[in-house]
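User: What would this chain look like folded?
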Amino acid sequence: VQLQACGGGLVQAGGSLRLSCAASGRTFSSYAMGWFRQAPGKEREFVAAIRRSGGWAYYADSVKGRFTISRDNTKNTVYLQMNSLKPEDTAVYYCAATASGSYYSGATYDYWGQGTLVTVSS
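Assistant: Here's the prediction, encoded as C-alpha cells.
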C-alpha cells in the first residue's frame, strides 16, 4: 500500500484544514488507518485512527472534539478534518495503515505516507 497525504498549509489559530490521504492498491479496506503528527523537536504522536469499516474512531485527548477522522473506502481515501486549530497543532502530519487491531502506537503500523506540514499561526 502506498499512501499520499495532502492538504496541509498555513492557517490562523481558530481556523480549519482538511487533510486527505489517498491509498494505492485494492486492499485499502483491509487496513485500519491512522493519523500521527510530529512537531519540531518532539516525538511522533498519535492523533486519530479509524477502523477498516469506518464504524469506530479513536482520538488523542488533545484533539478530541476538534478533529474528525473519516474514510471513504470507495475512493481509497482517509480524511482528517481539523477545526479550532491551535498553534500547538503545528506539525508534520502523517497518515498510516495498519493490519493490526492496535491503533495508538506507530510501531503497529505497516505503511506510512510522506507527511504534510500544518502550520498554525497565533
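Residues 41 and 91 are 10 Å apart (CA to CA). If you want, I can go into more detail on any region.
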